[in-house]
Amino acid sequence: MSTTADKLTTNPKKEKSRPVITKWTRKQHRQDSMMRWVFVGSAALVSAIIFSIIVFVGMQGLKTFQGVSPLEFFFSTDWTPGQQKFGAFPFLYSTLMLTLVSVVLSVPLALSGAMFMAKIAPKWMREILRPATDLFVGIPSVVYGLIGMTVIVPALGKITGGIGYGILPAAIILAIMILPTILSISEDAIRSLPVRLEEASLALGATRWQTMWRVLLPAARPGILTAIILGMGRAIGETMAVFMVIGNSPQMPKSLLDSTTVLTTAIVKDMGNTSYGSTWNNALYMMALLLLIISLVLILIIRIVAKRSEIK
């Protein structure tokens, strides 16, 4: 027999409260949806443009092998378009050599400057040095090339007794140009390290210099490698400054002071002298495809390095 108490103990079903959707909320939802589609469309457009460039340059560049064998193009040192000889190995070799020398010249100075600005310089000095360093990025490359052609090339010519043009003056100019990139990213990588690393090293009896060079630099290695790879990417793609100081002779360099040509300067120098669709023109497109492939490889390396940037 049910009693009144039993009825009171039973839990009645509670109605779920529905969120009140106001006019302002609906407007915000519409704006969020619209902006989401704008961002998706922008990303799709950029991807389509990049993919189209790669496909166009690739299709045009691969036509080179209709008149030239891949073995001759990649490994021959004879670049004589008038005789239908298109050996691009000197350009590829000079490009890699120029990039390597410029990075070797720039990295020690950039890392030293990054460590000084991150851990040694007082705040007021860092606020002056950082904008001054970033100012180098805004200088046009033709200005660097003009300084190299009027100052560095004559100085090297006087010291060595040669013409002064070659890989070395171009590497010096490129080292100055990529210095702000490597320095800025390396400084950010060092400053983002946990304070506990430095405190633990000092607590164990290490000096300040030992802590910086044996603890902080190894810990910031992923960010530093990313900075170096980005610097290499800019060095490989630079044209005007290199064009003005490298000499632009289509030959295999035997030393750092021999006049030579890299991929970018070869494209700039010869593109205006070719007719579209000719083997010479297609060979220049093939050089552009090589530059794109090198850039993509560097981007993939940055992705791999970035995955290891977190300290656990």
Shape descriptor reads: globular
Strand order of the largest sheet: 1-2
CATH architecture of the largest domain: Orthogonal Bundle
**Number of separate helices:** 13
- Strand percentage: under 5%
CA gyration radius, whole angstroms: 29 Å
What share of residues is helical? over 70%
Please trace the helix and strand order, writing H or E for each element: HHHEEHHHHHHHHHH
The CATH homologous superfamily of the largest domain? MetI-like
Walkthrough of the structure:
- The protein has 312 residues and is mostly helical.
- The protein is built from 13 helices and 2 strands, in the order H-H-H-E-E-H-H-H-H-H-H-H-H-H-H.
- A two-stranded antiparallel sheet has the order 1-2.
- Helix 4 runs parallel beside helix 7, helix 5 (123-135) packs antiparallel against helix 7 (167-191) and helix 10 runs antiparallel to helix 13.
- It is globular, with a radius of gyration of 29 Å.
- The model is unreliable at 5-10 (pLDDT under 50).
In short:
The protein has 312 residues and is mainly alpha-helical. It has helices at residues 4-9, 23-62, 70-75, 89-120, 123-135, 141-160, 167-191, 195-203, 208-219, 221-237, 240-245, 263-271, 279-306; strands at residues 79-80, 85-86.
